[in-house]
Design brief:
Two copies of one chain form a homodimer. Chain A is of the alpha+beta class.
Chain lengths: 765, 765
């Protein structure tokens, strides 16, 4: 009886606990912080401009200016296996494979002032501190850790534009807050251009930092305020070229001198603290000015209530995460699901002040009228599934993101839409001009309220920028020649897809001329298909295919982040034609099987970037993006049920609720967006199309709470980890006789039910 | 008959010519461009933000970072003795002894593109060109020269914020305009921080330049437009650390790439030109933004009419110069007079955009409400005579200058009024806190419409900034001790005078407490007077005077830019007491005679800064400022007429209408302001007082056209170069029984007549 009662209680309590547990409580920002995930464990709000997170090392650059693999590890500033924390900085990319940011590193210390960071092996040699994961709490919008060397508990939370630090000090006459203006994240050397700092009064400091990193000409302004008056302060300038010349020498500028400026400055602020005394810091950012940073701070966090700011941010997360209410087979799946959603709602990041001002690509300040301006567009990654996900559950924001891209275009002296937009700069990372995919998809799906015709013009102009990565040649010859650039095949394939997007947009806008031109261009993928080898292959200017060719290799083969096994699948807009050309449905099914089951020798794995060994299945590279649609291609073969199997396998293998749970860079949410779509049972094979390929849902059920007030439900019958096959799909009560659903079907609300089974339904459509 | 007719015609024509010749036509900007004058020959309008002038060398910094005497020569970018021109840049100080500016050097060339400047000995080795003074025209707001190596005639003129270039090219398929963003003027090494440039379209380029020179954190924005479309363009980046990394390599950024950014960039623009074809460039500056630069350009020079802009600027000069209509004994005197006036109306310089925006000391952008904001305050120099001159003939502007100082104070985290304000920075050059003199003088003379009480507060707070150059010790001990800083005696003397100014202002505002405090402080000069030596002398913390003491030496003696012979005279606010303490009127008269007649040995002359041998008379150093009032001190002795003789001698010896006509740095107009006052027959011994010491006018007559609509006339009888003595002064018809006039007497209009004589009137008061 006791046992039975206990059993009942156990079930009940679990039920009650689960009922009371809110989505944000399933978020584990620590997922992906080990090895290649390149996510960060710190605090941020959805799409927040501030990402306040610990740095576990300061290998922000190496001395000889060469690429350093160790630095690559710190794209997000944090590696789970590290034993020390250097400090907490305010800006971080989530999941990138190149690096920048890491602005305004703050570190609280006690004891003798040390202004150098020290080394990981000897943290006592500098201001850094050892820490243990046992003391670490990493939640949505909250991070906490004990800095053991200084006996300080560090806590942080944020609003959209303000980082909020709370440090609990021991009793000490020598408590310090260090503001390291040298520290930063960057793969390729010293990026500091200039820093300026002004102690306005004994609680307020403002200034800015200019860097030339991945973003070449970038300035971040700040306003920093302390909850307790500064007792004294000072700086050390590490630039040997910068001396206090001439009449500057009138002042001892190292101590209590309120104007600091230079290329390599570390500042510090001294306090006396009692046991357990909390010193709080609000640190606001602006892309425009010190004043705007201060205005952002006053607007977003007027008081000093840390718990309220934390709570508000977590409720903001909850609101966003609740857009998909999900039930899963187990807690881990739910953690994975909401953490993936969390990771999809980090980038792009807000790049507008509360008053609407932002810095544009032209380095002028602009006023965002009728939209919030965003930055951090990792478009080669995110056009695939992240922006399509937004077109369902972040419609307003995705419209603003298109407006941001259009503003970028208007400010571009190159007259190009963004390729990889970072803080009022473009770094042109990766291939293609995929902003056209995002724009077409958003307009076709009705999420952009701006001038669609102007958007089409911007797409066309970008796609005709002859001097950009072989576009001229592509326009003349129908392909980028191998001699012209190292990514010639990737470029040709991606341009062809992007051109198809432009054609779809033109069609939507009844622009026949543009449609005809670009639908023709969209067939250019055929020009790099080598029937002899059966693969997409580098082609010479002469028209013949290149002799030198290795189907397993990535480097020097005309591809980027994927060998031809993966890239040859890349005709998302016309898989039927691609499959027909490659030997037909049956042959292609076997080919896909090989992809997932063959062995990629180590020498070739080493060439894939940004992923761990766990990031591949056979020769299918999920940790990179080019073949993200590959599993869904089975839908077009004689063995369509294999999509269901593969998708469930990828979901299980590639996403785990642990620090090393991501097999590759999360890539600003693209990896996570793949997870969300695939967990729900459908996937946007070709953004720009209104169709979603059906796969195999991993959830028990999910309710999509749409911005139009409607709900779209995904339900399952017989769901289990073994029942990965879909024997029947019922849409709004009727059996669905296709392997896709449409955007309209989702957005008008309703229910899609998947009948699950351990065996494939080989008879189903 | 013929001869007679010719003679009559000669006289008549000369008369007509003189009658038609306007004041601006007497201006010779070339005066002071040789040796130590440090003026520039280029184009500017009164108080203009743009000073467009040739650079004759690019020794803008030397490689080893040490001070370089050769660089010092180029404070204004131009030395008359040089044989080559490197280019034309848009910002120049007039007459300073430290350097900065030289922004945006433009050079037109033909033939093979050369992006390095080349050397003076081999101009063909780079883009520079030989030139001859024979082809040079240097007028108020107009400069012209033939660049012989390129067969290009260069002409330039300006509006307040825009430089207007006009280059007449030969026929060439290879005509270039080089924009050198590396070139700049600075004594102490490489000051470039960052430059950004954007080719907006084929006639418009915008961008900015950041430097850390004499102004530590300075940015100048620009907008540049060509009258003819650019055929092609490019850049070379000279920073070995700045490579086109990663995806930047997608573009050939050296050619026709519209976004340039870096620390060391030279850009060029190519054209094809026909014989005699003019390419015009409008180059606008802004302290705030690229957009404001463009707005400044559109507002000030909407079209392409070079002659109109030149004419408008020259008429603007005429308007200002007409504030004193003068008749002189000869043409040279008139040239000297109007060139001196020209030099007094160059600084401070406008630092506000047409829309009222400017960058403040706090590096925030501000809106100037109700005033124009100014920069370039060389206050240690200009408080003496330049701002007092403005209080008579630039009342409105001087009020705006006080407003600018108050804005500086409000933006100062140090809570200090400006010492030497340059482009939103203070370099704290020289000693004292002389902004209080300028402010007190302006308020006492009724030229500041702002909050006088707030101004007094700012003066008091500045004067009590204990950590600034010994002020704390000065407040505690009544003097700055020799151990405390190298300028201890100068500081004590100048603080005492400044304190007297604060007392005068307090009196004006009926603030008895401040008056009492500062009138007491104003007597501190007595604390550094050593009765034993009869000189002001460094005093130790202990109270005893320093043993080591050399009355002829400047270096290491506690003085700055003046030995104790000069500095011991520095009690402008209480000469009677100073003279009494130093042995009385008769003894002091002899002492003054010695000053003007003794020989300063070469070893000590070498220690005086910023002047040529011609810049001294005996041991009286006119080329520096501390003794600028010395000649007028005779008025307080038993031989008052010697003021008249000395003043006329200084006017003749120190000011000549030639390139080497200035014996020392013009110091932002102070040397020239001394000339104007002294030529008119009166001088402000102690700004803050309403009195002007009478000297000996050098003009035949002069009419001061005051802003209040009244005129004040200075007339003479028996004026000649020999009749330097004043036998009688008649003010508004009545004999004047004092050796001074008051500000009120001038400002209410009227006439002062000086009866001149070859012999002193030893009986006169």
């Amino acid at each position: 009886m006791k046992k039975i009662l206990f059993g009942i209680c156990g079930l009940l309590c679990a039920y009650v606990a689960q009922a009371q547990k809110q989505p944000y409580q399933y978020v584990k920002p620590i997922i992906g912080t080990e090895k290649m995930g390149h996510t960060y464990p710190g605090a941020t709000v959805p799409f927040g401009a501030v990402q306040l997170s610990p740095e576990t090392d300061t290998l922000s650059y190496e001395q000889n200016g060469k690429y350093n693999g160790d630095v690559y590890k710190y794209c997000a500033g944090y590696q789970y296996s590290d034993k020390t924390i250097v400090g907490f900085s305010h800006t971080h990319f989530s999941g990138t494979g190149h690096s920048d940011l890491g602005d305004f590193l703050i570190m609280p210390t006690t004891g003798k002032l040390q202004l150098n960071p020290g080394t990981a092996n000897e943290p006592q040699s500098g201001y850094r501190s050892a820490f243990s994961h046992d003391t670490e709490v990493s939640e949505a919008n909250y991070y906490k850790v004990k800095l053991t060397d200084h006996q300080i508990t560090a806590e942080m939370t944020t609003s959209a534009r303000v980082g909020f630090h709370q440090y609990t000090f021991p009793k000490s006459d020598q408590s310090h807050i260090i503001l390291d203006l040298i520290s930063g994240i960057y793969n390729y050397g010293d990026k500091n251009v200039w820093t300026y700092l002004r102690v306005v009064n004994d609680t307020l400091v403002t200034g800015y930092r200019q860097t030339s990193g991945w973003a070449r000409t970038r300035t971040v302004y700040f306003a920093m305020t302390f909850s307790k008056p500064i007792a004294s302060y000072g700086q050390k300038n590490y630039d040997p070229k910068q001396v206090y010349r001439g009449f500057w020498g009138k002042f001892d500028q190292t101590k209590d001198f309120p104007e600091m400026a230079g290329r390599k400055i570390r500042a510090y602020f001294d306090f006396k603290t009692t046991e357990g005394e909390k010193i709080k810091i609000k640190f606001a950012l602006s892309p425009v000015s010190q004043e705007n940073a201060l205005e952002n701070m006053r607007a977003e966090i007027p008081g000093w209530d840390f718990e309220k700011v934390k709570r508000d941010g977590q409720q903001a997360w909850n609101k966003e995460l609740n857009k998909i209410a999900v039930n899963t087979l187990n807690e881990d799946d739910k953690v994975n699901f909401y953490t993936a959603m969390y990771h999809t709602f980090i980038n792009p990041t807000l790049y507008t002040d509360v008053n609407g001002a932002y810095r544009g690509l032209d380095q002028n300040n602009h006023q965002a009228k009728g939209f919030d301006n965003y930055s951090t567009f990792s478009l080669w990654d995110t056009y695939r599934a992240l922006h399509p996900l937004f077109n369902i559950i972040q419609q307003k924001r995705n419209g603003d993101m298109v407006s941001s891209m259009m503003a970028h275009y208007d400010q571009s002296s190159l007259k190009m839409l963004p390729v990889w937009s970072n803080s009022a700069n473009d770094n042109w990372c990766m291939s293609g001009y995929h902003s056209v995919s995002v724009i077409a998809d958003a307009i076709i799906k009705g999420n952009y309220t701006g001038d669609a015709s102007a958007a089409l013009d911007a797409c066309v102009t970008t796609a005709k920028h002859r001097s950009y990565e072989g576009i001229g040649e592509y326009m003349d010859k129908g392909y980028v020649a191998s001699e012209s650039n190292g990514n010639s095949v990737s470029n040709t394939l991606e341009y062809a897809y992007d051109d198809w997007c432009i054609a779809q947009l033109a069609k939507k806008l009844n622009n026949t001329a543009v449609y005809n031109e670009f639908i023709k261009r969209s067939e250019n993928w055929k020009n790099v298909y080598d029937a002899k080898s059966g693969f997409m292959r580098p082609r010479l200017k002469s028209g013949t295919f290149r002799e030198k060719f290795d189907v397993l290799s990535t480097n020097g083969q005309g591809f980027i982040e994927g060998n031809t096994w993966n890239y040859s699948l890349y005709v998302p807009h016309n898989p039927e034609a691609m499959i027909a050309l490659r030997g037909g449905k049956k042959h292609f099914a076997t080919h896909l099987d090989s992809l997932f089951t063959m062995h990629l020798p180590d020498e070739f794995f080493a060439e894939t970037e940004d992923i761990t060994r766990e990031g591949i299945i056979g020769n299918y590279v999920h940790g990179n993006e080019p073949a993200h649609h590959a599993a869904y291609l089975y839908n077009y073969t004689t063995t369509p049920w294999k999509t269901q199997d593969r998708v469930r396998m990828i979901l299980k293998k590639m996403y785990k609720p642990s620090s090393d749970g991501l097999g590759g860079n999360d890539d600003c949410g693209q990896m996570s967006a793949w997870f969300i779509f695939s967990s729900l049972g459908f996937y946007p094979m070709a953004p720009g199309s209104l169709n979603y390929e059906l796969g195999s849902p991993a959830v028990i059920n999910a309710t999509l709470n749409l911005e139009n007030g409607k709900t779209f439900k995904v339900t399952t019958k017989n769901q289990s980890d073994k029942n990965v096959y879909v024997s029947q799909v019922i849409l709004n009560g009727a059996i669905l006789k296709r392997r896709s659903i449409t955007h309209e079907e989702i957005m008008k609300g309703g229910e899609i039910q998947f009948i699950m089974s351990a065996k494939p339904n080989t008879k189903a459509l």
